[in-house]
Sequence to fold (223 residues):
Amino acid sequence: MSKRVGVVLSGCGVNDGSEIHEAVLTMLALDRSGAEMVLMAPDKEQMDVVDHRSGEATGEKRNVLAESARIARGNIRDVKDVQASELDAIILPGGFGAAKNLCDFATQGDKCTVDEGVQRILRDVHQAGKPVAALCIAPAILARVFGEEIQPEITIGTDAPTAAALQSMGARHRDAKVTDVVIDDRNRMITTPCYMLAGRISEVATGVEKAVDALLEMAKAGS
Fold:
């Protein structure tokens, strides 16, 4: 039986939403593995909207769920309506949206808070013994949600200040190369650096594929 994997998106575009390459490569890897996807995002206003040509904020107002629907081709749900019982695993692509819209790590660092719906689904999935994966900067969310309780072993690559912030939230950070995957078997969590280190989309693809393979293997082992 195919596994149902939740994919948590955070908008559309690396500077203010989901990193599109990471999101699409995640979906491709899941589809090629025969998994069924449940795409979701918070229904709320983005922290900001960035012109991806100039890198400057535009002052526009956009909705995270509506923008995420661009990547999902419209087949997406409000994260607050998704239940852990529907899923066998969950994965969070990166992009600044993970640090701006799923949480506020981009502005608050280790004092950040996580969107209520995102925190609820992550806690429920984990408490049900199902695996969780996070890409790029998204492991910051795992550090905030789970750090003090279970000290997950995670990676964002080799950026020392970011790693220190994750550790100050209780996580155990392990330096990793661009295509490496850190697997925390004890806590059933998987992370990989993606564009925290990658200079080429092919490097991202390798890391994503490894993470998805590990996530699905962990989900099968737990079923």
User: Anything to note?
Assistant: The chain has a mean pLDDT of 97. Residues 201-221 form the longest helix (21 residues). Strands lie at 4-8, 36-41, 77-78, 89-92, 132-135, 153-154, 172-173, 182-184, 189-192. The chain has one domain: 4-139+201-221.
